[in-house]
Amino acid sequence: MRPDQLFHDLQSPRHRRALGRAITLVESTRAADRAAAAELIALAEAHRPEAPTFRLGVSGTPGVGKSTFIEAYGMELLRRGHRLAVLAIDPSSSLSGGSILGDKTRMEELTRQDGVYIRPSPNAGELGGVGAASRAAVLLCEAAGYDYVIVETVGVGQAEWQVHGMTDAFLLLAQPAAGDELQGIKRGILELADHIVVNKADALPREARLAAAELRRSLHLAPARPDGWTVEVVSASALTGQGLTEIADRMDTYRTELREGIQRQRAEQRIEWLREQLRRELLRKLDVYLNDAGLDNDELRARLDQHFTLPVTADVILTEFLKLHRP
Prior knowledge:
Layout: H1 3-10, H2 16-27, H3 34-46, E1 54-60, H4 66-79, E2 84-90, H5 103-106, H6 108-111, E3 116-122, H7 134-143, E4 148-152, H8 159-164, E5 169-174, H9 187-192, E6 195-198, H10 205-220, E7 233-235, H11 244-257, H12 259-292, H13 297-307, H14 310-324
Parallel strand pairs: 1-4, 1-5, 2-3, 2-4, 5-6, 6-7
């Protein structure tokens, strides 16, 4: 199907299948799909929705209850009249290419609701847990009429930094623990958060209070934010619904008070997307060159023996590569 026809179907009332096909296209690593994916992204950028949209990143350590929280929070958003898309980025094996893709089964109630689209996507080993096509997928969901997009990450390593760089707000979920167990949340990650929620407060109320107090102390050590926003730490329970209304209210306040800042942030994120695309395309062309030039492991080993040091060998190979791509 032509990209313009696919985009037309994406904006029709019966858009679900088209949206799935569109995201699959931009996720594809096949050379034959690159031009069509680029055209589809261009159409999405040229036809932004008239109504304002909101992009929320949700992350946290494994076992914190991200999927349970998103389901309960999503139901609250539906009650407020939003149309919700959830992009759940799953871990993939760098060896097998396999993916768990289990978020739909963990969000059974939310999946059955009209006005909700859930897309579990493998990250294909992408550093930080956010798939290469995640930015494009957000645009496509908005083009399909979803005004609230949640991006859930695997919550490992640099995932929080990457999701912060593609969303309007970043919500961090924490475990109801204290002391050493909270050290798993690095200070830099705390400084990224726009709101912090200690989940599972129903099962461990005392531990949740202690964790919230410790997180507040940690936030006091962070430098003041230039946008003037005050990050709050609250306790909640995705299982019982405790605190979810207040969290949604807080996110609405953020969206209202920082409206202009969000627009500036999106413009900066678009520039970063361009940088990522340039780096990704450069690496792709380098891989093609290495393959075409017969530079497999044996040949690379021979080059190392010839030039003795790794930096000199790399410099020689890159010089040869750049000569081929010089205008």
